[in-house]
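To illustrate the input format used throughout this study, we show a single complete record. The first block contains the structure-token representation of the backbone; no residue identities are included at this stage. The design step must infer an amino acid for every position from geometry alone.
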């Protein structure tokens, strides 16, 4: 609290002294980029509080239900949330986006068009995931089944998604289709739209058939290069949960009891991956532990990943998913608030000292009428709750940090400009000689 008060006073002082300078005066094209361990937006460090809402496209595909997307974005912005992560996939099954390899449901695509357009109106950046590791909304299982049924491929594992050239071809086509999509609402191709902050190769990629990690490493390398060959405007991340692998055996002791063939360090060192992600579900991963042990796991988990992002990867990091389910035994709102406060404090502490942690996205945001989508982790900001207050407070703290850094940068630019004017006024540099 003491640190927060100091920062708040500093923000007031900076605002009073430099109010005449626009914090966005550095210019820019509105795309979020990276510089070292920081995200940058229009020349200034970018910190963001955000949320997951996988249901956005699915709901917006029905024009009569689009108000729910608008309501969710309105409630999010009223709590200071500026980044949303959602699905840009739905493969086969009920109401698909892609109902067969290379064939798309235009009504569903218009739903995604609307989501992007509406996010733009509300000043929300989007992280769009391109395929699922799991069966929900199709995922890698559907791709493998398509290759079996449509192309006669003999495939024995869903993990052949990462290895089989036919399956990879299906995914490559999907990537090209989405990135080159012309938005029917905005008139902007997705690959040219600054509303999109980043692409995600896959939601939580796992390859249990190859715990060495080589299969996932090769797949991320190949597909990251593909995305960048089409779209250099946007950032790219792999969708990782953060499990350590063989490149850092001393870190694997931090993992929950899972061996899923990913490697946080090696996967994120791939040059075309712009930033790292980590997910946090101590209630799932440490089910047999008590609440305090789960919070201790969470603290260690975040500490390690933030340090590795700064020193081993030298890239920014986002906590792309975290939450606590009301279905947990002994659940209370107080416990959920404890978890949120733990995650948020770690990010705030990192941001305050200029570290690599730049934000977190809780799982998941719902709005009125979306109760059937609640998997236990749903949060409705429209209903006054202590958790909604915790979320809003974090947004405000990160907002202050953004403004402080922006105004410091503007001060420096102003001083440089004043120095240049003084130099020009008193003779400047003429013919290689310094004039006074």
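Output of the design step:
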């Amino acid at each position: 609290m003491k640190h927060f008060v100091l920062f708040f006073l500093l923000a007031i002082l900076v605002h009073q002294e430099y109010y005449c300078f626009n914090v966005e005066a550095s210019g820019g094209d509105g795309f979020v980029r990276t510089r070292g361990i920081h995200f940058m937006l229009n020349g200034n460090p970018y910190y963001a509080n955000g949320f997951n809402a996988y249901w956005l496209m699915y709901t917006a595909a029905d024009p009569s239900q689009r108000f729910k997307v608008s309501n969710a974005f309105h409630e999010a912005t009223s709590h200071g949330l500026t980044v949303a992560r959602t699905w840009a996939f739905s493969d086969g099954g009920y109401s698909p986006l892609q109902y067969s390899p290379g064939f798309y449901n235009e009504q569903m695509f218009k739903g995604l068009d609307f989501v992007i357009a509406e996010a733009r109106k509300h000043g929300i950046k989007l992280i769009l995931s391109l395929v699922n590791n799991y069966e929900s909304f199709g995922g890698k299982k559907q791709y493998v089944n398509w290759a079996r049924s449509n192309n006669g491929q003999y495939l024995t594992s869903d993990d052949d998604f990462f290895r089989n050239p036919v399956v990879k071809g299906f995914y490559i086509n999907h990537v090209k289709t989405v990135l080159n999509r012309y938005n029917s609402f905005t008139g902007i191709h997705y690959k040219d739209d600054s509303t999109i902050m980043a692409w995600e190769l896959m939601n939580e990629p796992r390859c249990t058939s190859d715990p060495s990690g080589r299969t996932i490493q090769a797949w991320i390398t190949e597909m990251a290069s593909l995305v960048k060959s089409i779209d250099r405007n946007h950032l790219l991340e792999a969708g990782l949960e953060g499990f350590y692998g063989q490149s850092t055996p001393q870190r694997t002791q931090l993992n929950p009891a899972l061996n899923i063939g990913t490697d946080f360090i090696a996967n994120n060192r791939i040059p075309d991956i712009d930033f790292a992600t980590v997910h946090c579900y101590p209630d799932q991963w440490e089910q047999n532990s008590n609440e305090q042990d789960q919070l201790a796991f969470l603290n260690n988990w975040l500490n390690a990943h933030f340090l590795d992002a700064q020193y081993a990867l030298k890239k920014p990091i986002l906590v792309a998913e975290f939450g606590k389910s009301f279905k947990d035994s002994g659940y209370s709102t107080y416990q959920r608030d404890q978890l949120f406060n733990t995650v948020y404090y770690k990010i705030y502490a990192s941001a305050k000292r200029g570290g690599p942690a730049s934000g977190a996205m809780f799982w998941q945001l719902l709005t009125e009428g979306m109760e059937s989508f609640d998997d236990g982790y749903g949060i409705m900001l429209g209903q006054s709750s202590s958790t909604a207050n915790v979320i809003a407070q974090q947004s405000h703290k990160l907002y202050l940090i953004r403004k402080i850094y922006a105004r410091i940068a503007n001060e420096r630019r102003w001083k440089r400009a004043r120095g240049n004017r003084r130099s020009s006024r008193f003779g400047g540099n003429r013919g290689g000689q310094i004039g006074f």
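Structural context for interpreting the output: The chain is about 45% helix and 15% strand. The first helix runs from residue 2 to 18.
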